[in-house]
Write a structure and sequence with these properties.
This protein is mostly helical and about 425 residues long. It has 18 helices and two strands. Strands 1-2 form a two-stranded parallel ribbon. Helix 4 packs antiparallel against helix 5, helix 5 packs antiparallel against helix 6 and helix 9 runs antiparallel to helix 17. The chain is globular. The N terminus and C terminus are likely disordered.
Length: about 425
């Protein structure tokens, strides 16, 4: 998955059969009838009018004829979009981290009234810095594996207190390998929420009650605790890594970097300023980072179809990911993550080149009859918010039905 560019599976007969049903009375009754696909998520089915014909929606009904991703990769490589601009990225990281330091210095020198402005600003700058660490984890920051690893540990465990080993497992392997797949993608089911009926039923009674009664209004407020939750998950993952692989070099590098984080952010400031001011600033700033991370990642995937199983071809990435249209100034702080489609297809493209990569990819998809989703940010945010409100009561969808256009309001529009 990701940049592997493996050829499409040719076993598309079932998908083609479903496609033949689109626009026929029997096909619409199948979508609506008891025991059929219509029982999964009525909000996402097109039942008032025949769905848009399969080929007109921009998806080839013959799955074996969809071009291999290698042709797009070659076009992007000829355009120079895999080339790194490492010096510029290091400078950007220096500016962002210096901005965080200046904001916290201002809080220390001038007290709590300026903190009302400076701490949220520090959260914005810290989130952008963390996204540069995300580039290091994907090896798109530098052509040097050593410097990518150095950057990842500088930003994630040392600066942000987040285990690099945990991030690679959670994000690089599970999320990028299985976007929007029920039970596999951790980014669409942040605890204590559920993104599908299956996730909901796997929870305990108290958790199910919370999801039924509180999920709609509690999701965005509780994303402020995402940073705390990921720190806890980091400790659990490091303990599991030590049991499974031993305390290897990667484990020690990760743990040492996290020690640097907690000494720098908590121990030293507590000695200087006392425990209460230190904890107040730390928790407030990183709570802001948690909310901002959710505002970056959730609209790119939530609201698109949740898959009951993995579709083992790269078009799965197109069906479960969308780009976010933003003003250029705001886009600067997303560090390329407003171009999620291209990032998922080619995670090794540096963020500087993703806008141009998006233009080339959109044109390539249109030429080859493939969907390429892009929405204004506020529309995607509204869609994500509506989705998470009642996601616990909707079944995940068959990837064949999604490919055929029988589910997924984005694909059926």
């Amino acid at each position: 998955m990701g940049e592997a560019g493996e050829p499409l599976c040719t076993a598309g007969t079932a998908a083609a059969d479903l496609a033949d049903l689109i626009g026929t009375p029997w096909g619409r009754r199948f979508c609506q009838g008891s025991g059929g696909l219509g029982d999964q998520n009525p909000r996402q089915f097109v039942t008032e009018k025949p769905p848009t014909p399969y080929r007109q929606r921009g998806i080839s009904p013959d799955m074996s004829r969809v071009p291999e991703l290698a042709s797009l990769r070659a076009e992007l490589r000829v355009a120079g979009l895999f080339e790194h601009h490492e010096g510029r990225s290091w400078l950007k990281l220096l500016v962002l981290m210096s901005g965080v330091a200046l904001c916290l210095t201002g809080v220390a020198l001038h007290g709590w009234l300026p903190a009302l402005l400076l701490i949220p600003l520090a959260s914005v700058l810290a989130t952008a810095a963390a996204m540069l660490g995300h580039e290091g984890s994907h090896k798109s920051f530098s052509p040097s594996p050593t410097r990518n690893t150095l950057l990842t540990h500088l930003v994630f465990p040392a600066f942000a207190g987040l285990s690099a080993l945990y991030w690679r497992e959670k994000h690089d392997r599970l999320h990028h390998g299985h976007p929007n797949v029920e039970g596999l993608d951790p980014d669409i089911r942040p605890w204590p929420f559920a993104s599908s009926k299956g996730d909901h039923l796997r929870g305990g009674g108290k958790l199910q009650w919370f999801q039924r009664t509180c999920q709609r209004w509690a999701f965005w407020p509780l994303t402020s605790q995402m940073a705390v939750g990921m720190r806890r998950a980091s400790f659990i993952h490091l303990a599991a890594h030590a049991r499974k692989h031993g305390r290897d070099r990667a484990w020690w590098f990760d743990v040492t970097s996290q020690v640097i984080h907690y000494v720098s952010w908590l121990v030293v400031p507590t000695i200087v300023f006392g425990p209460l001011p230190t904890l107040a600033v730390y928790l407030t700033m990183w709570s802001g980072v948690g909310l901002l991370l959710a505002l970056i990642f959730a609209p790119a995937h939530m609201g698109l179809p949740i898959m009951a199983e993995q579709r083992h071809d790269w078009v799965h990435q197109l069906e479960t990911t969308r780009n976010l249209e933003l003003p250029r100034f705001v886009s600067f702080f997303f560090i390329g993550l407003d171009y999620q489609v291209e990032h998922h297809l080619f995670p090794k493209i540096p963020h500087k080149h993703l806008p141009r990569a998006a233009a080339i990819t959109a044109a390539w998809c249109a030429k080859n009859g493939l969907v390429h989703l892009s929405e204004p940010y506020m529309h995607a945010l509204k869609d994500a918010s509506g989705f998470i409100g009642d996601a616990w009561q909707h079944d995940a969808h068959s990837p064949i039905a999604v490919r055929a256009g029988l589910v997924g309001h984005q694909l059926a529009a």
